[in-house]
Design goal:
With 324 residues, the protein is an alpha/beta fold. The chain has helices spanning 26-37, 52-58, 66-72, 85-92, 108-111, 132-140, 157-169, 172-175, 182-195, 200-214, 219-228, 230-248, 251-264, 267-281, 284-294, 298-308, 311-320; strands spanning 3-4, 18-22, 41-46, 62-65, 75-78, 101-104, 122-128, 147-150, 177-179. A nine-stranded mixed sheet has the order 1-9-8-7-6-5-2-3-4. Pathway: Amino-acid biosynthesis; L-isoleucine biosynthesis; L-isoleucine from 2-oxobutanoate: step 2/4; Amino-acid biosynthesis; L-valine biosynthesis; L-valine from pyruvate: step 2/4.
């Protein structure tokens, strides 16, 4: 693995270039602000009805309607929700300059054919490996976030230079840019979201909480045991790795982890993980994502509502309540 950092990157590639950020969510906001602070000519493209226009302007960003922003830009970064990329690209394609660059922070749209770009466009991927809030805070602290970068196999050399310069401008070159592909980034990210960090870990926390409560433990204590120590675990792993984390905890905790971990995460779990990866690669999740958007997100709305009404959330609210 070759880690590319600021000193390896030609930042002048973006000199005189105008970058349009389409979308102003978690990544759009952070990337636009980091680009601005890096001296890049950046414009945020938003719909006429967007409530984010006033927010972006308050932060000192130039704002235009999507069509105008795209037409004025040398580089267009699609940072709207993945599921609308196909419709969005078809709408902006006539406004894209000949030979412009089109960038993504997730490989899904290219890997699963949501977007089929014109042949004259330079396509690239810069995918920070963390949320936009962290990308922004790290940048402001003079640090950076590791990112993956990619261009299609048949890409012109210019696309590679733009990808790396863009990664540098949003601060990721400070930590390092790792080469990947659109397929690898999309498949690994979608797998993680479902089977590990964002899907499985919260469910494991809920299951542990419910088991303790069913066993007679007070909800607040169950919450502290099962959820409250998660940040400690994450911090130790970030600082020392998994092996180093095990060495840093007490003998009691280490033995408990050794005896209990693989009883829970057994071969059955690994089999189901392989199933998830296979479904991701077959495009089943991409299809489900588009179906969810077309139906106005019924499953997501129900899941959000149900999550707010669980006992574990009640325990969280009680523990996090400010004192009188």
């Amino acid at each position: 693995m070759h880690m590319i950092r600021d000193a390896d990157i030609d930042a002048t590639v973006l000199d005189g270039k105008r970058v349009a950020i389409i979308g102003f969510g978690n990544q759009g906001r952070a990337q636009a602000l980091n680009l601005k602070d890096s001296g890049i000519n950046v414009v945020v493209g938003l719909r006429p009805s967007s409530l984010n226009a006033a927010v972006a302007e308050t932060l000192g960003l130039e704002v235009e309607l999507v069509d105008e922003a795209v037409a004025s830009a040398d580089i267009v970064m699609l940072l709207a929700p993945d599921e609308i990329h196909g419709e969005l690209y078809r709408a902006i394609e006539p406004r894209l300059r000949q030979g412009a660059a089109l960038g993504f922070s997730h490989g899904l749209s290219i890997r699963f054919g949501f977007v089929k770009p014109r042949g004259d466009l330079d396509i690239f991927l810069v995918a920070p490996k963390g949320p936009g809030t962290a990308l922004r805070s790290l940048y402001k602290d003079g640090r950076g976030m590791i990112a993956l970068w990619a261009v299609p196999e048949n890409a012109r050399p210019k696309a590679r230079k733009i990808a790396l310069a863009y990664g540098r401008a949003i601060g990721c070159g400070r930590a390092g840019l790792i080469h990947s592909t659109f397929a690898e980034e999309a498949e690994a990210d979608l797998f993680n979201e479902q089977a590990v960090v964002w899907g499985a870990v919260p469910e494991l926390l809920v299951a542990g909480f419910e088991t303790l409560v069913e066993g007679g433990v007070k909800p607040e204590i169950a919450y502290l045991e099962c959820v409250g120590e998660l940040k400690l675990l994450a911090d130790l792993i970030e600082a020392r790795g998994i092996a180093g984390m095990r060495e840093a905890i007490s003998n009691t905790a280490e033995l408990g982890a050794t005896l209990g971990g693989r009883r829970i995460i057994d071969e059955g779990v690994r089999t189901r993980m392989r199933d998830v990866l296979g479904e991701v690669r077959a495009g089943k999740f991409a299809d489900a994502l588009q179906e969810e958007e077309l139906a106005a997100y019924p499953r997501l709305k129900a899941a959000r509502r149900d999550a707010r009404e669980t006992p574990i959330e009640a325990a969280y609210r009680k523990l996090s309540a400010k004192p009188d």
